[in-house]
Design goal:
Chain lengths: ~80, ~130, ~280
């Protein structure tokens, strides 16, 4: 639990979360969400929760991003919001 | 003032987790696009899971896998050497439920788009009112 | 709406921050969360279950009932996705695209045109198509078996390392999704069809619930793995370890089938004809 790494990853996580909610391209939002999931996985691995980090790496940065990209592919890609 | 500064430093990371939860909640309430709402829901879920995992962390303790030596007799492990495993168990179930709700939510988004040809909430409400 | 949302979020956030001032300091070994119940689990779960990974032991043995319902939740998500999205009637053939394998020429058959259903020299491609890419296809074909072996390893080694049924099941499902993305959806459905995925997900739930019923039939409580000691011929502590392995296999099978089902239905919007 080295607090310097934790602070850096927390700042990256907050920037990615705000970014995933503000970009106007839904495919970019899905990819930013995949990056956010992976940074969360690193954070939990630093805190010692290795099982939870493994699950989040396989689910969040793997399957969940693919499902988002598939759903964006079948609906529209741009949004004005 | 010194006590306040102490409190600020030792609990600052709880505040960061709360900020992350509020970002997710803002995404659910205030965004009009349905996919952005789903992203906000997932950010809220992972932030809550992060909060629970941080409760179980301990200083100078190792991961909750008991090291067994080369002898077959497992000695009793002292509890302060290992991180609390109970929040990890509950959060595993929470991640599974999160991915299940993500699957069903994206299914509903595709169905709504097939019916109304748009994903913005205000346009969908207008089309419902016109019918 | 945005201003109202912002005000609500700020108020709620400040209430939560005010509540967090009462928390114990971060990483405290004598915090209330770590001093009442968890020392019991850390100290005695190895002699109860002989599984060194505490998270797997608590998840599949002490809280096995929760994990069974979690498996049922993910099974319900897969079934719900099929019911909401799947279109079963065969629609009339519209514009189809075919590619000649040897030379790479693509043909477009319009609506009403005739083309033989199966043909050795032509392959059917999606309407959003890319030129034939040898590198992606060969790499995927080489690497999918290794991903599957790693997924099986993660399920089986969940007792001693981080892992377990759910993680291994997701990795196995991701291998199938990789195959479906690198090739096209139709060839993936030929390898693992819809009927097989639904049957596998029910099989996973049945393995989990069936282990509990088996323990009940042998005279013990539901999901009390000591009942398997007489069946497997080991002492009750090792029977706990084997019982955990059996239910993890059940969870892994169910999760793999549901991930594949979710991808098939989302990528093709229910029609199962062409995907990403």
């Amino acid at each position: 639990m080295i607090w310097q790494i934790e602070i850096v990853i927390l700042i990256i996580v907050i920037i990615l979360a705000i970014g995933a909610l503000s970009v106007k391209d839904l495919l970019g939002a899905a990819i930013l969400f995949g990056a956010y999931s992976f940074m969360m996985c690193l954070l939990w691995a630093i805190m010692g929760a290795v099982d939870v980090a493994f699950t989040e790496a396989s689910v969040g940065a793997g399957v969940s991003t693919v499902l988002f990209v598939a759903a964006v592919f079948r609906t529209s890609r741009r949004t004005e919001d | 003032m010194d006590a306040l500064f102490n409190i600020l430093i030792s609990r600052a990371n709880y505040w960061v987790y709360i900020v992350l939860m509020m970002i997710g909640l803002y995404g659910i309430i205030a965004k009009k696009n349905l996919v952005k709402k789903i992203i906000g829901m997932n950010i809220l879920q992972t932030a809550v899971i992060l909060f629970y995992i941080s409760i179980g962390a301990k200083k100078n303790a190792t991961i909750p896998i008991i090291e067994h030596g080369h002898d077959t007799a497992h000695s009793a492990a002292t509890a302060t050497l290992y991180i609390n495993p109970l929040p990890h168990v509950l959060m595993l179930t929470a991640i599974v439920v999160a991915v299940a709700t993500l699957g069903v939510a994206l299914t509903l988004v595709i169905k709504i788009h097939q019916q109304y040809h748009t994903l913005e909430e205000n346009e969908i409400l207008e089309k419902i009112r016109e019918k | 709406m945005k201003i109202g949302g912002l005000i609500l979020v700020v108020i709620l956030g400040s209430v939560l921050i005010y509540g967090s001032l009462e928390f114990p300091p971060w990483g405290d070994p004598v915090s209330p969360a770590s001093s009442h119940l968890s020392p019991y689990y850390i100290e005695t779960s190895v002699e109860d279950t002989s599984v060194p990974n505490l998270v797997t032991a608590v998840l599949a043995d002490y809280r096995g009932y929760d994990t069974m319902f979690e498996t049922i939740v993910i099974f319900t998500a897969g079934i719900g996705c099929i019911f909401l999205l799947r279109i079963f009637r065969k629609e009339e053939t519209g514009t189809r695209l075919y590619r000649h394998i040897a030379t790479g020429i693509t043909l477009r058959i319009e609506k009403g045109g005739k083309f033989p259903e199966t043909s050795a020299a032509f392959e059917r491609i999606d309407s959003v198509w890319v030129p034939h890419d040898l590198i992606v296809k060969t790499t995927c074909r080489l690497i999918v078996p290794f991903i599957q072996i790693f997924g099986l390893y993660v399920i089986a080694h969940g007792h001693h390392s981080p892992g377990g049924g759910f993680q291994g099941g997701v990795i196995l499902g991701a291998a199938m999704i990789l195959y479906a993305v690198a090739f096209n959806l139709r060839s993936a459905i030929q390898r693992m069809g819809e009927r097989l995925t639904v049957m596998l997900s029910t099989l996973g739930v049945f393995i989990y619930a069936g282990t509990g019923v088996l323990c009940m039939l042998l005279g013990f409580n539901y999901l009390d793995y000591s009942a398997l000691a007489s069946l497997l011929g080991v002492d009750p502590v090792t029977a706990h370890s084997h019982g955990i392995l059996i239910v993890e296999i059940g969870v892994g099978i169910a999760v793999m089938a549901v991930m594949v089902t979710l991808y098939y239905n989302l990528a093709s919007a229910g029609k199962h004809d062409e995907g990403l």
